[in-house]
Design a protein that fits this description.
This protein is of the alpha/beta class and 201 residues long. It folds into 2 domains: 49 residues, Helicase, Ruva Protein, domain 3 (Orthogonal Bundle), CATH 1.10.8.420; 141 residues, Dna Topoisomerase Vi A Subunit, Chain: A, domain 2 (3-Layer(aba) Sandwich). It is built from 8 helices and 7 strands. The strands form 2 sheets. The chain has a 5-stranded mixed β-sheet with strand order 4-3-5-6-7. It is elongated, with a radius of gyration of 20 Å.
Length: 201
């Protein structure tokens, strides 16, 4: 039986960092030992930032983006085009689209995509809320900006189906986005072209 040589609190933090997406055990260990070497102030500032983020953020009741105030700054901005809604999978995707300075409408965050293998079914996404927004009237176009993956495409088709009863144009980002890619990793020019070249579903 091997003897544990790492202190239990250190192992616990490594384990918690390892749960983050894209962080393996080596990176988690580097984060942990960097914090150990650093000042108490650095470690406490990180802990405080995490606590504050959890305590002071809410989901926008209109688009479900993460915000400090409800509605979020985009939904509250009277200069945004309220006739267009861009549907994205995750809050990070909004940041990617906003970087292009190409889009002036509103958003709707699904908080995932249909993926039965991962236990993510349509009822777990903000799809009925999207349907209700369109049903309320005033929306002329819904741009589906789900990732160019099998799951993203399945989600896009499902959205087109639930919006079919309404007189609304449903388009999907297309040009420039490679198949199998995540929107958050695409550059501004690629996303900008994808917005301009969107196609009706």
């Amino acid at each position: 039986m091997s003897m544990r040589i790492t202190a239990e609190p250190v192992e616990r933090l490594i384990e918690e960092f390892s749960r983050l997406p894209g962080v393996g055990s080596k990176t988690a260990s580097r984060f942990t030992f960097w914090l150990l070497r650093g000042s108490d102030e650095q470690a406490l500032a990180l802990a405080e930032a995490i606590r504050e983020m959890k305590e002071k953020t809410v989901l926008c009741s209109q688009c479900f983006y993460i915000t400090e105030s409800d509605p979020c700054p985009v939904c509250a901005n009277p200069a945004r085009d309220r006739s267009v809604i861009c549907v994205v999978e995750e809050p990070l995707d909004i940041l990617a689209v906003e970087r292009t300075h190409e889009y002036r409408g509103l958003y709707h965050v699904l908080h995932g995509r249909i993926s039965p293998m991962d236990g993510m079914t349509a009822d777990k996404l903000k799809l009925q809320e999207l349907r209700a927004r369109v049903a309320a009237g005033g929306v002329e176009e819904v741009i589906i900006a789900t990732d160019m993956t099998i799951e993203g495409t399945a989600t896009a088709h499902y959205i087109a189906q639930i919006l079919a009863p309404f007189k609304v144009k449903v388009t999907r980002l297309a040009y420039g986005l490679p198949v199998g890619s995540d929107l958050e990793y695409a550059d501004e020019v690629t996303i900008s072209r994808a917005i301009q070249g969107r196609r009706e579903m």
